[in-house]
Each structure stands twice: as structure tokens, then as C-alpha cells.
Amino acid sequence: MRRLKKKIFLSTFGASVALLGVVRWAFPGVTGRVPDDAAVFCLDEEVEPVADTLRSDMLPHIGTQRVYNRVTGVYSYEKCFSDLQEVQIVAAEQWGVPPIRNRQEAEHRKDELVYVGMSPYYDVDSRMTQSIPYLVPRAGLLLRHIGRTFMDSLDMKGIPLHRIIVSSVLRTEEDVERLRRYNSNASEQSCHRYGTTFDIAYNRYNPVYDPAGPKRRTVRDDTLKWVLSEVLRDCRAQGRCYVKHERKQGCFHITVR
Question: What CATH architecture is 77-256?
């Protein structure tokens, strides 16, 4: 009789454990934790939900809890973004305008160019003096796409929104000449002369503040650079642009394709 009771107890206990395992596997939210594969890795930064922002309706959910995408970046900036001048200049000559001599001539060439000085998705560097905020339409669309996709990616990863900073755009021949006087790395055959090329700083960004929102946490520039590198890697893989990682200038040098 005692052995029979023991067998019944062990059978009931084993069945209960198996049932709980099935429930936990089918409904992970019942434990109060998000599954490990939904975790966010932001270079050891603590991730917290942010207020509803751009494209928040696109965020996936588990029940009422958001699931944020991982930050992966690229394995090597130099290897993944190694498109040299020799490659970029071919695309610049194909898609760009003939080089412009000076700012006065640029005023008469604006029917060939689009103004890119203002956008909700990026900021043009206020310190920019060696170029003017104009691009050919093809490059202008690419810049807008990069800025918007970058903000979408931050939102999808649970990172407070920031805008990228465009540090260089169209350069006239006179701009190139002045730049070469104190910057030995500036090329006389600069791709920037064609309106197809722009630089995006990777070591500084402008935060987007919501006056009515909660206090923002600080995000390291390295984390933002990882997210930006993901966006540029995808654009490059789609054949939309060439990208060079510029170490000394602290920027990604990008030419539309």
C-alpha cells in the first residue's frame, strides 16, 4: 500500500513538472521575463523603454511589453567601409554635376541641385565653412534615407533618439583650394565637387528632446556609431552608395551610386 502511494505521488509530481515546462515554453511572459533572444546589447549600457517617438507603431510586442532589437554594428569599420577615392570618383563623375568654380557660380546652378540644409532626420554642422548644403537629388534622397533609417533603428533598439550631423557637403573649386592649404589629406580631385558626396560625423550626434517626456539617459557616441554603421552597411550592400571610414576626420565619407 505504501509503495502504491509513493508511485502515485511520483507520477503526479512528474506530470506537473512537465506541464509547467510546456506552459513556460509556450508562454514565456508568464515568468515575468522577456526571453533571452529578445534582449538588447548596447555596449554594456542599461536599456530602458523610451517615450513614443517616430515609428513607434512599428515596434514588435510580447503582450504589452516591447521587444527591442539587438545592436550588432560591424566587425571592422576599416574592412566594411573601405571604398577608396579611386572607386568613389567614378560614381561622382557619373551621377554628379560638373565642378563649380565658386559660390557665386553655385547660385546659378541650383536648378541642378537640391538644398539639404534642413531636415527632421539630420543636422548640418553649424561649423561647416568649406562646403555648402547642396547635393544632386539622388544624393539628397540617400542622405534623407540614412537619417530617417538611423532614427528608426534607434527607436527599434530602445535607444533615445539622436540626429546624425552632416559635416561636409558640396565643395566648390575655391573651397577645395582653401582646404588643401591646411589639410594635406584633402584631395584636389575631391568627390565633394560633384554634389554626390557628403560626410557624416561618427563621434558626435544631436539628441532629440521631448519637452513633455521623461528625463533621458545618456548614450555613448560609440553606441550610436554602431547603430549608424548598421544603417550604412545595409545601404552599401544594397548598392546605394560607397562608404569610406575616415579615421583622422572622424566621419563616414559617402558617395551615392
Answer: 2-Layer Sandwich (3.30)
